[in-house]
């Protein structure tokens, strides 16, 4: 039994946030029909790398779907769109504000066709307000919604996060909202409209950094690989490689001092508790750094494993994918290598039945299901 068996999703979405939501729903068992313009989703051409004409970018967020290409500006496609909507449970769209309405797939129009429809609209800055008309791109949102201000070296330029976290977080938020709306519909019979914006999603992702500003009125600062609220909790250098050390409790602090035979630090009032260590960050980090630099990474891995202190080597992406823990995440669908869903459900596990679809590959079978001529 698939968790979302019997749920049909129409994805009028491209690039990442909307397709990420559609793929997640497909993983959970929904039937997802990706409705693309005749030229296809933009990310079909985003590469290299490509494999057999498939871009790696498109592959990362489009498994489990069927594709049909429709020119929504062509009145001849209207009967197909309307019949799809009548049979659908969920619509996902991420057109620029006003675009869905111009193409005849806005919420008010589709709700007339299907009052039970759950309609998820994803945008850069929200569908109303002074910046509703602006296009939203992950990189720009990372800058404008504060993430780049707290990412990167202390004295260097601001950095973006290496993966499109604003898009992915928005896709995850959209998925959660769709599931909540389907649960509401199950109880009441009512559909509804959902609005998700990249800006809102990224702003919420600031989490403790935003809370600190709200509490103090003082702006957050870029700290490189240090944590604003916990010390020591950062990157250190062994003699041959860097590693992450995460000492997030007083018990771990005492273990650290014991494992490193640094009893003077344990007894130093400047480092008595986490608040004191944050206040005297520079002195403590300097003392630890000099000790760590004297031994190779393997030495510290053994020391901290014995003491059960959280630390980690800093892996490349390839090393992370090849990590023993990642074995359960590596899958192939239709000879396309990809990463699985991280959701593990005992009764209704994710399913991976379709590879990312070629453009318009399922036109014939979709039209046949609708009882329409090719």
Structure, briefly:
38% of the residues lie in helices and 15% in strands.
How are the SSEs ordered, and which strands pair?
Layout: E1 8-12, H1 17-27, E2 31-36, E3 50-51, E4 54-55, H2 56-59, E5 65-69, H3 78-87, E6 90-93, H4 99-102, H5 107-113, E7 118-123, H6 138-144, H7 165-188, E8 192-197, H8 198-205, H9 208-216, E9 233-237, E10 242-246, H10 250-259, H11 263-267, H12 274-279, H13 281-292, H14 297-307, E11 311-313, H15 317-321, E12 330-333, E13 336-339, H16 363-370
Parallel strand pairs: 1-2, 1-6, 2-5, 6-7, 7-8
Antiparallel strand pairs: 3-4, 9-10, 10-11, 12-13
Task: Identify the notable features of this structure and list them briefly.
374 residues, alpha/beta, Rossmann fold, formyl-coa transferase, domain 3, 2 domains, three-stranded antiparallel beta sheet, 16 helices, 15% strand
Shape: elongated
Helix fraction by DSSP (H/I, runs of at least 4): 25-40%
Gap from first CA to last CA: 32 Å
Assign the CATH architecture of the largest domain. 3-Layer(aba) Sandwich
CATH topology of the largest domain: Rossmann fold
The first-level CATH class name of the largest domain: Alpha Beta
State mean pLDDT (0 to 100 scale). Answer: 95
**In which order are the strands of the major sheet placed?**
5-2-1-6-7-8
The portion of residues forming beta strands comes to: 15-25%
* Number of contiguous helices: 16
Order of helices and strands: EHEEEHEHEHHEHHEHHEEHHHHHEHEEH
Helical/strand content category: alpha/beta
CATH homologous superfamily designation of the largest domain? Crotonobetainyl-coa:carnitine coa-transferase, domain 1
Instruction: Indicate how many domains the architecture comprises.
Output: 2
